Amino acid sequence: MKVWKTILAAAVLTFAVGSSAWAARTDLVIGIPLEPPHLDPTAGAAAAIREVTYANVFEGLTRIGPSSEVLPDLAESWTVSDDGKVYTFKLHTGVKFHDGSDFTADDVKFSLDRARAENSVNAQKQLFAAIDKVEVVDPATVKVTLTHPQGSFLYNMGWGDAVIVSPKSADTNKEKPIGTGPFKFDSWAKGTSIKLVKSGHYWGTPVFLDKVEFRIVPDAAAYAPALLSGDIQAFPFFDPDSVAQVKDDPRFKVVVGATEGETILAMNNKQPPFDKLQVRQAISYALDRKAIIDGASAGLGLPIGSHMSPTNKYYVDLTGRYPHDVAKAKELLKEAGLENGFKATLKLPPPSYARLGGEIIASELREVGIDLEIVPVEWAQWLDQVFTKKDYDLTIVSHTEPNDIDIYSRKGYYFNYDNPAFDKVIADVELTADEAKRKELYAQAQKILADDAVVGFLYELPKVGVWDAKLQGLWENAPIPANDLTKVKWTD
User: Fold this and answer.
1) Does domain 262-460 have CATH number 3.10.105.10?
2) CATH homologous superfamily, domain 58-172
3) Burial 83-100 (b: 16+ CB within 10 A, else e)
4) Can you list the positions of beta strands (E) in 96-192?
């Protein structure tokens, strides 16, 4: 009998060990190219903040899904008044922030009032401009009254900038973010990685992963070696030029999706000589989009002629407005009194599309007599010098926020563009709910930007993702800046 007990115990032990060996992994290391300046999405424009925190740490009333759909989040449901101006949100109950405090309608009111306040530091303050007042009906109900109907309101509430924060932690979220999401902040080794762990009291569907590390890898040449060595299991935004190193390896999945990232050669419209329309148009004619896409994005990316993604339902193809024409570019420079060309600076942030694209563009502009001094800057420098202080001539960046053509109407925005006719169209869009009319207005807006050659419109940034073939649930497209891990899991 003793022998049988021993055999049985051994069998149980063997089964337990075997089961453990076959259990799916619950950890993940994700490679990201840029370190966020901080971790508060309500107080900064950098997409890198949202690529760590969106849907993982912080949640909003609504959220944007992988196909750009609006989904319920902290609001389980809502009703809209007949005049389209009053939204009544029914909130989930039993929700807690990561510090253990209860989430209630008071937190919604605090967050929305804070975002739209006169002293707000929210990078997308215009998302909240239509809000007239926010009222707490009861702990699980909040009523938002708009000054006018706004067809995009629920979508706007799904942006990373509209997440709900607690008054207790709002001032410290930059370094220690506290939200209601399925993951909570663990640690941040500056320059190296940011770690999240599974929240023990998440209100929603439990996530599969127990811990996630966002590993900061600024050197694109290091992406493939990190995957091949197993140090990193996923790069949701992979270097297109490095795809050839892994695309035939069955251990990995390569996915080419779409983004909302309009990649542009931005110009300071109030800085001479870029304050002259002929100069901006000359630059647009000098640009060979195909060469730029081939050289900076491995041939991946769709050319654009205005600030709208080709995947957007309001998109108008204006790529024929400025065909590559060196002679025409020179002619326009002559009209501007600059037949001998001029010198300018091109400030380039770290992403490879900017650095590689900058070299190509500098060569193309040299052909028409424009001599560019390339100035590489780190991301924090770019945000300070270019985005905030507008201390630049030209720069290259990809604007990744969805349907953000309205940025050209924002006073003091870094383009320094001012056109009352454009502003009027954007204001009319804001007040229009009729889809046919909205489409017409967005078409007008795109044409005005193209005619004014506000910036050099290049291409829509592709989302090239490479990850372990056993991983499921990562987004193939990027309708907003995010690495949503709520459905990510390992399979056998």
Assistant:
1) yes
2) Dipeptide-binding Protein; Domain 1 (3.90.76.10)
3) eebbbbbbbbeebbbbee
4) 131-138, 141-146, 183-189
- Distance, CA of 307 to CA of 426 (rounded, Å): 13
Residues 305-337 have pLDDT tens digits of 999 998 888 999 999 999 999 999 999 999 999
Q: Do domains 27-32+181-257+463-490 and 262-460 have the same CATH topology?
A: no
Residue in the structure block whose two tokens are 């372990």: 468
Question: Are 252 and 227 within 8 A, CB to CB?
Answer: yes
C-alpha–C-alpha distance, residues 357 and 292, integer Å: 6
Q: So where are the chain's domains?
A: 27-32+181-257+463-490, 58-172, 262-460
Stated pTM of the model = 0.79
With b for 16 or more beta-carbon neighbours within 10 A and e for fewer, the 329-358 pattern comes to bbbbbeebebeeebebebbbbbbbbbbbbb
β-pair partners for 102: 96
Long-range interactions of 8-14: CB distance < 8 A, separation 24+? none
**Amino acid identity, position 106:** D
CA neighbor of 36 nearest in space, from 251, 196, 257: 196
CA–CA distance, 162 with 300 (Å, rounded to integer): 31
pLDDT at 2: 42
Which stretches of 103-209 are assigned E, i.e. beta strand?
131-138, 141-146, 183-189, 193-198
Beta-carbon count within 10 A of 481 CB: 23
Instruction: Identify which of 231, 197, 196, 230 has the alpha carbon closest to the alpha carbon of residue 214.
Output: 196
What fold is seen in the domain 27-32+181-257+463-490?
A: D-Maltodextrin-Binding Protein; domain 2 (3.40.190)
Q: What is the pLDDT of residues 174-231, one digit of tens each?
A: 999 999 999 999 999 999 999 999 999 999 999 999 999 999 999 999 999 999 999 9
Give the Cβ contact number of residue 175 at 10 Å: 10
